[in-house]
Queue: 3 jobs
Job 1
Amino acid sequence: MTLIMIGNKIENRLNQVTMNIINILKQQDYINGIALVGSINISDNFNDYDLLILHEHDDIFGKLKNIFSEYNTSIIDDSIRITFEDSNKDINLALYTNKEFSNKVYSLFKKNNPIGEHREWAIGYWLPEMLIQDLLNCTVIYDKLNNFHNLIRYIKGKEVDFRNLFIEKCKCEINTKIKYLNSHISDLEIKIIRNDLLLAFIRLSSLLDCLHFTGFKKLDSKLNRYFYQILSDFSEMENSRDISIAANKLLNHLLLGEAYEFK
């Protein structure tokens, strides 16, 4: 069993409610692992407390909702969310069996794996590289069967291959969408493709720069001012030819370092 003490820097970012929930979870014999994920591990400025929980229980959602019945809880996708009306940050418990989570991680490295997943709570879409980044930067709190340790070791050995795979997928998507723009499509399709390209360019930029990208929220504070302005101008284009030309210029800017000339 691996039980890891939380460093002072991270512990100081946790509130007492979150510490209490962690301690309760560690006492349950069906809980095999607890990791603190998300931006809390890299910044003092974070939104919620995100805990990744590995377990072996047939009714984990019902069990934990009962244990934490004193709190306001809801089920969202693969997680239990604990919300507060006061100034406390919300707490998210992402719940997976050991096998479910291992399969999820290993599948990300397959070439035919989807480039992203639509989630009802996600702006844009959920990015596989965010899970990889979460694991590489996480704070492992409890690891009874060394699941987290083994997965992190596996990821570190495949990190460059994963990054290159998704760079190629982004490039493929961008070139495919540019081809669509050069065909006969409706105005609505043009706008949808333009938005797809926006997301793909943001992803490609973060992958090329090896940045810790945390999703499509608060882009004004994540992207440099020059790139943000390029994307803002791009988002207002409506003519398919203009979008196609700008997309090619932006792709060359990112891949080849060519200057992007504003109209």
Job 2
Amino acid sequence: MPRFQANTLWRDAHYYRHPETGAFMPKYVLILAASLDAEDAVTAVLTSKPNGLRESPPCQLGEA
């Protein structure tokens, strides 16, 4: 199992499978916090894909 360190980037080479080819695809994960033994971590996944939130106005999370 990986040893996690807070405030670092971790590249998971097999994060998900491509829906058409079935090939494993990588993803970068930001390690936000790690347990004292470095076996568990709180992470944020970095993506360049749209997330469904509005872009205009920025930071609008829902209906006002």
Job 3
Amino acid sequence: MSSSPYQGEIIKAIMELSGMIQSMRTEFGEGIGDLKKDVSVLKEDVSGLKEDVSFLKEDVNGLKEDVGVLKEDVKTIKEDMKQMGEKVEMIDAKFEALNQSLLTTQAEVHRLKRA
């Protein structure tokens, strides 16, 4: 078999190309490894965010319950204030009646003193 004058250069070029391919494979593998690490970190972040969202939902539900309780408390307070207002009106009416009775009694005492 006769060797071509370019055979050595062809082999050298093939070896260089093979080295470049190997280097590219290594870099690609490292890049894939880095991407896998990044994806893993992102998955952890997403998991943490899901937990945070879950806690926030629980907080919102708790706040909704608190608002419901507060609304009931406000309703009860309004009813109590209405009843107290009615009692105050009744007490005012009794004081007015007592005042009228006192005036009548004073007038009667005054009349009896003159007689």
